């Protein structure tokens, strides 16, 4: 083990305790903030309900009018948004840790576009019900990831930038396919599909939230297990192999879990942009950790989603903006800042 690698290992080890404490505090604080935003959203809508009223409705002792506003309309949407954010944040943390690049995100490197393309085929060509095109979205995300991984890595394990560039190209090609599918559909179908493509929570219900919950219960622990190996891989491929990390299996596992997380989110709410890109980097800066953290990034993604949905519902009065429009507006500025920062760093 070289001196540089040894120093890196010591730094990672000594910083791990403080980072873990900051990460735990940040995760708990972020989830509490997300719940506060959900209560604020429910308390300021067309049928406002106080936090105590929300609790009574959840416990089955609420006023019938409040039950309709909370249990049938507001809370399914809020919970779905939170769960979609959890999935996107966790997916982004895995891909960014694997590529060791802040641009490594499922929506940037084409995974979301692949899920959206297959979902549109199911929606506009095969005329499937939501359950059918949701399954197709997961299949499309996995198929796109397989193509990007095969073309982007070329059998190497340290191919972060190449993977990202290949992913951006595949994503651009699939976006053109999505546009073609929209032009070949009827006005009604294209309007519904366009709203879904923008990333919307307006059709949320408890069944979608339930399916997404089950997926997260399975996928998040798997993501945390893979993240443990990714931290070792920060020391370099040779050191990771020497420490017993199966690089090929970890690489395939990381991308498969990340794509599955992103795909179930896309299947639920459409391709919501920039949450997977932004949440892990906010966590890195707040915890000053060496790599994105899965659970903290998931919590941050959930907070970004519920805040964006609150802004989308309240910013323009009676107009309900799709949540993806809000995340796209804010995330686009963030991406421009990030690219500028990367360019300056490389030009020094």
Automatic annotation (TrEMBL):
GO molecular function: transmembrane transporter activity
Gene3D superfamilies with a match to the protein in the record: ABC transporter involved in vitamin B12 uptake, BtuC
Pfam families hit by this protein: FecCD
Domain of life (superkingdom): Bacteria
Transport keyword on record: yes
Primary localization class, coarse: membrane
Membrane-spanning ranges: 24-46, 78-97, 109-127, 133-151, 163-182, 209-230, 250-274, 319-339
GO biological process: siderophore-iron import into cell
Keyword Transmembrane helix: yes
Keyword annotations of the record: Cell membrane, Membrane, Transmembrane, Transmembrane helix, Transport
Signal peptide: none
Subcellular localization, as worded in the UniProt entry: Cell membrane
Listed GO CC annotations: plasma membrane
Topology in the lipid bilayer: Multi-pass membrane protein
Family: Belongs to the binding-protein-dependent transport system permease family. FecCD subfamily.
Protein name (Swiss-Prot/TrEMBL): Iron complex transport system permease protein
């Amino acid at each position: 083990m070289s001196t540089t690698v040894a120093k890196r290992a010591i730094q990672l080890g000594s910083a791990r305790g403080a980072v873990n404490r900051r990460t735990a505090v940040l995760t708990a604080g972020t989830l509490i903030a997300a719940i506060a935003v959900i209560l604020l959203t429910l308390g300021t809508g067309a049928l406002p309900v106080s936090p105590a009223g929300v609790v009574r409705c959840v416990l089955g002792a609420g006023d019938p009018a409040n039950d309709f506003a909370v249990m049938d309309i507001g809370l399914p949407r809020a919970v779905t948004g939170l769960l979609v954010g959890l999935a996107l944040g966790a997916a982004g943390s895995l891909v960014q840790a694997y590529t060791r690049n802040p641009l490594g995100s499922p929506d940037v490197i084409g995974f979301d576009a692949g899920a959206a393309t297959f979902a549109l085929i199911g929606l506009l060509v095969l005329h499937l019900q939501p359950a059918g095109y949701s399954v197709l979205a997961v299949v499309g995300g996995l198929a796109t990831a397989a193509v990007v991984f095969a073309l982007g890595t070329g059998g190497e394990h340290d191919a972060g930038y190449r993977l990202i560039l290949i992913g951006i190209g595949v994503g651009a090609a699939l976006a053109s396919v999505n546009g073609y599918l929209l032009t070949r559909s009827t006005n009604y179908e294209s309007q519904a599909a366009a709203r879904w493509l923008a990333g919307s929570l307006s059709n949320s219900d408890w069944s979608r939230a339930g399916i997404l919950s089950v997926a997260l219960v399975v996928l998040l622990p798997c993501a945390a297990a893979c993240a443990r190996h990714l931290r070792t891989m920060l020391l370099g491929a040779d050191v990771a192999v020497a420490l017993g990390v199966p690089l090929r299996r970890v690489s395939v596992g990381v991308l498969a879990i990340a794509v599955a997380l992103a795909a179930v989110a896309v299947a639920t709410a459409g391709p919501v942009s920039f949450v997977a890109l932004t949440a892990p980097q906010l966590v890195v800066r707040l915890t000053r950790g060496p790599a994105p953290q899965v659970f903290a990034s998931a919590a941050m993604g959930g907070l970004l989603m519920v805040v964006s949905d609150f802004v989308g519902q309240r910013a323009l009065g009676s107009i309900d903006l799709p949540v993806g429009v809000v995340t796209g507006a804010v995330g686009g500025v963030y991406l421009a800042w990030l690219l500028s920062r990367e360019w300056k760093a490389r030009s020094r």
